[in-house]
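Lab manual, section 2.4: Encoding a predicted structure.

Procedure: take the sequence of the chain (248 residues), apply the prediction step described in section 2.3, and record the output as structure tokens. A sample record is shown.
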Amino acid sequence: MDSAASTFSLARFVEDVRALVPVAGNTRHERLPDGRTTLVFRVLEEGRKGDVCVAGPRTRALFKDAPGVVRAVILQFKPGWSAPLLGVAANALTDQIIPLEDLWGRPGGDLRHELLAARSLPEVFDRLSHAIALRTRQTFEPASARLARRAVRLLEGDAVRVEGVAEQLGVTARHLRRVFTEHIGIGPKDYARTVRLQRAVRMAATSKDWRRIAVDAGYYDQAHLIADFRELVGLTPGAFLKSPERGR
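Recorded output:
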């Protein structure tokens, strides 16, 4: 491994890393809409096989059984890095799960073999970091991606209207929608919905006052919250929290 790659940090591109080991045959995966793209490495069949896939941004919740998974490592990228790191626009990945080899070609297959050969979790992280470091030196980041990430920060803050975000960034709402969809994978209004949904889920971990949760998460009222849950998750908020998928 060259020195540049060995000192490379994933922190610029990755906001969360999780290592998962199924417990007592528990292999149900839950993913709510969040405007994120993830890289997933799975070890299958007692370590004999595995795969590396890219899961694009979700427009609806996904509850999926994954039998035969021995362990998995999930890298959640910060919004706006799909094109520089993966070589495709984010909206080409929306609601898709694609083998990394289909995006990177042979290097994607080589990385899968390297990860399967890794003897420890730190070694898996080192090899992932090395592979991403190489990608960052082979591509460039367009200005439109930086614009999209600035819009993400505003939408995850106090901004609620796309037109207001566009005005703050000095662009038209139409231009913002175009670059946002290209680099984040969904439109800014849809992204704002995922922000509210995620806030509500986090708040519901410590409170069951849905009227207060709705207001604090940015909904017009409780009915607005329930309608969004039904459309994005397929369940009411209460049913979602009681569903068998929770905690799996």
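Check your result against the sample. The chain has twelve helices and seven strands.
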